[in-house]
Amino acid sequence: MAVLRCVFSALLLLLIGDFISTFFYHVPAHVFGKFHTLVHHGQKHRSFTYYAIITRNPLVLLHGFLGVVPYLIVVPWLWQLSPLGTILGLLLAELHVLWRHIPISERKNLNTFDRLCNLFFITTPERHSLHHLNADVAYGDIFTFYDRPGRQWLECLRLLKRRFVPHQS
Q1: What is the pLDDT confidence band of residue 169, given thresholds at 50, 70 and 90?
Q2: Residue 169: inside a domain, yes or no?
Q3: 162 contacts: CB under 8 Å, gap ≥ 6
Q4: Into how many domains does the chain fold?
């Protein structure tokens, strides 16, 4: 039973954290903020992991912190279910961030692993690089099934912005 609670809480943390991150942070950042676009989409072939580590720009660190907040929000509830599962979920989320930012040229071809990722709707570095190249596609930092609703939310927010925010030159 403890193992099931551990796995369940880790999975919930990843699902809920990615949902909150996608719909309440990432997509709105593309519409209402320029900072995310500059940091995350500023240069097409930059190593983002390397950039996050070597930069001395505190705004880049702030961006990283804001990216983890959606996952931290659910920690108090999931901790009650399984502290170990909650820690496991946070660890898996961080490892996924590092993995999905591996430059494609440095990644070895792992067809079986990629097929498993596709089977479980897990974002691969190749899929995430699509988002770096085109900020209008490939939403869902961990799970690919957030892409389509994420793009629909992006369009809704853009319509709202056009309607309520005066055009800025």
Answers
A1: very low
A2: no
A3: none
A4: 1
